[in-house]
C-alpha cells in the first residue's frame, strides 16, 4: 500500500533532469515546481534529490525518525510525571510534587523509566508521520488540482496530516502501551524486554492495541493542528513579521522562523489533544477498561489534569521537531518548499473577474 502511494506521488523520473526553460510536462510535481505554489520551489543546483522522488520521501521519513525519536526520548522525565499525575492525581499533586515523589521512591534512574519504548515507538511514528505527510500532500494536491491546492491549502494540510497519523499510530500503539505500563504501574516491569512478554502473556495482542482508538483520538487532532497550524504560521510570519522575503533570509534565520512557528503550533496541539491523552494513560494503566469507562472515571476535571506540563512539553517538543526536521533538510541539501504563492492561472481568473 505504501509503495502504491509513493508511486502515485512520485510523478517524475528520478534520473532525468528537466531543463530550466523547458515547458512543464503534465504531472503534479512538474506543475507545482514550475508554478512555485504549495509544494515545492524549482529544483536548485546543488540539491541532493528532486522534489517528489522516492529519495525525497525516504529522506523526509528519516528526518521524521530523528525529530520525533530524539525529542520524545529527551523529555521522558516530564512525560513520566505527566502520566502519573493523570492516573493518580491524589499521589502526584503537581509537576514539582510529582518529581519529588518520583525521585524519593525511584531515584534519578526512575525518571528515565520508559525511555526505550518511547524512543522506538516515536521513531516509528515520526517515520510515518513526516514521510507519509509529504506523500499524502502531493497525492491529494494531484487529486484536487493546482488552483484548489492553493485556495484550500489549510484543508489539504489537515487531510494529509490526518492520513499520515492514522498509519503512524498503528506503529506507535504497541510501544505506547509498554511505555505507560512501565511508567504508571509499580512493579509491572522496568524495561521493554520485561514488559512486552508480560503484556502478550496476560492480555494478548489486544493489550498492545486496546488504546489504539483513543490514541487516534489524541494523535490525529494533535497532528492535524501540528502541521496545519505550523504551515499557516510560517506563511503569516514571513508575510507580517519577518522584515524581508524568505528567499533573502539566511538558512539560520529561516530555522529561527521554523522554531517559532513550531512552538506556536505546539501550544495549540497540547490543548486540543490533552483529554484523549489522559484517557490513553488511564486506559493503559488498567486492564479490561474501555475508553468510555476511563473517561467517566476521570470526570471532566480529571481529563484536564497535567495540562500545564503537557503544554510545556508539547510546545517544546513540536518546536524542536520542526527545527530538527528542517535542519535535516538543510543538511541533506533537500528541496525546501517556499511559502505558497497564488498560481498564475488563478491570478488571471481573478483579474478577469475584477477581484485581483
From TrEMBL:
<dbReference type="GO" id="GO:0005743">
    <property type="term" value="C:mitochondrial inner membrane"/>
</dbReference>
<feature type="repeat" description="Solcar">
    <location>
        <begin position="55"/>
        <end position="139"/>
    </location>
</feature>
<dbReference type="InterPro" id="IPR018108">
    <property type="entry name" value="MCP_transmembrane"/>
</dbReference>
<keyword id="KW-0813">Transport</keyword>
<protein>
    <recommendedName>
        <fullName>Phosphate carrier protein, mitochondrial</fullName>
    </recommendedName>
</protein>
<keyword id="KW-1133">Transmembrane helix</keyword>
<keyword id="KW-0812">Transmembrane</keyword>
<keyword id="KW-0677">Repeat</keyword>
<dbReference type="GO" id="GO:1990547">
    <property type="term" value="P:mitochondrial phosphate ion transmembrane transport"/>
</dbReference>
<comment type="function">
    <text>Transport of phosphate groups from the cytosol to the mitochondrial matrix.</text>
</comment>
<keyword id="KW-0496">Mitochondrion</keyword>
<keyword id="KW-0809">Transit peptide</keyword>
<keyword id="KW-0472">Membrane</keyword>
<comment type="similarity">
    <text>Belongs to the mitochondrial carrier (TC 2.A.29) family.</text>
</comment>
<dbReference type="InterPro" id="IPR023395">
    <property type="entry name" value="MCP_dom_sf"/>
</dbReference>
<feature type="region of interest" description="Disordered">
    <location>
        <begin position="336"/>
        <end position="356"/>
    </location>
</feature>
<dbReference type="InterPro" id="IPR044677">
    <property type="entry name" value="SLC25A3/Pic2/Mir1-like"/>
</dbReference>
<keyword id="KW-0999">Mitochondrion inner membrane</keyword>
<feature type="repeat" description="Solcar">
    <location>
        <begin position="253"/>
        <end position="331"/>
    </location>
</feature>
<dbReference type="Pfam" id="PF00153">
    <property type="entry name" value="Mito_carr"/>
</dbReference>
<dbReference type="GO" id="GO:0005315">
    <property type="term" value="F:phosphate transmembrane transporter activity"/>
</dbReference>
<feature type="repeat" description="Solcar">
    <location>
        <begin position="152"/>
        <end position="236"/>
    </location>
</feature>
Amino acid at each position: 500500500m505504501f509503495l502504491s502511494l509513493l508511486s502515485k506521488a512520485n510523478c517524475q523520473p528520478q534520473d532525468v533532469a528537466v531543463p530550466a526553460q523547458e515547458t512543464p510536462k503534465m504531472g503534479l510535481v512538474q506543475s507545482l515546481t514550475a508554478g512555485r505554489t504549495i509544494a515545492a520551489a524549482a529544483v536548485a543546483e546543488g540539491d541532493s534529490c528532486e522534489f517528489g522522488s522516492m529519495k525525497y520521501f525516504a529522506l523526509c521519513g528519516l528526518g521524521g525518525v530523528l525529530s520525533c525519536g530524539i525529542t520524545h526520548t529527551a523529555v521522558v522525565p516530564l512525560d513520566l510525571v505527566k502520566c502519573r499525575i493523570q492516573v493518580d492525581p491524589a499521589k502526584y499533586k503537581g509537576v514539582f510534587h510529582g518529581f519529588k515523589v518520583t525521585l524519593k521512591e525511584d531515584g534519578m534512574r526512575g525518571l528515565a523509566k520508559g525511555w526505550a519504548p518511547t524512543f522506538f515507538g516515536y521513531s516509528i511514528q515520526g517515520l510515518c508521520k513526516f514521510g507519509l505527510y509529504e506523500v499524502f500532500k502531493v497525492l491529494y494536491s494531484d487529486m484536487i488540482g493546482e488552483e484548489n491546492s492553493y485556495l484550500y491549502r489549510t484543508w489539504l494540510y489537515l487531510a494529509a496530516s490526518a492520513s499520515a497519523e492514522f498509519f503512524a499510530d498503528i506503529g506507535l500503539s504497541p510501544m505506547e502501551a509498554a511505555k505507560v505500563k512501565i511508567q504508571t504501574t509499580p512493579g509491572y516491569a522496568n524495561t521493554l524486554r520485561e514488559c512486552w512478554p508480560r503484556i502478550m502473556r496476560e492480555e494478548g495482542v489486544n493489550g498492545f492495541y486496546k488504546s489504539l482508538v483513543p490514541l487516534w483520538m489524541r494523535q490525529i487532532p494533535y497532528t492535524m493542528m501540528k502541521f496545519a497550524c505550523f504551515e499557516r504560521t510560517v506563511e503569516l510570519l514571513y508575510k507580517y513579521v519577518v522584515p524581508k522575503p524568505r528567499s533573502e533570509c539566511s538558512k539560520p534565520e529561516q530555522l529561527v522562523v521554523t522554531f517559532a512557528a513550531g512552538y506556536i503550533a505546539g501550544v495549540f496541539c497540547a490543548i486540543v489533544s490533552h483529554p484523549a491523552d489522559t484517557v490513553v494513560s488511564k486506559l493503559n494503566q488498567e486492564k479490561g477498561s474501555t475508553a468510555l469507562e476511563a473517561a467517566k472515571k476521570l470526570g471532566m476535571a480529571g481529563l484536564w489534569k497535567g495540562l500545564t506540563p503537557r503544554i510545556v512539553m508539547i510546545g517544546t517538543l513540536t518546536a524542536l521537531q520542526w527545527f530538527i526536521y528542517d535542519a535535516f533538510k538543510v543538511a541533506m541539501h533537500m528541496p525546501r518548499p517556499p511559502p505558497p504563492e497564488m498560481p498564475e492561472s488563478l491570478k488571471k481568473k481573478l483579474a478577469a473577474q475584477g477581484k485581483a
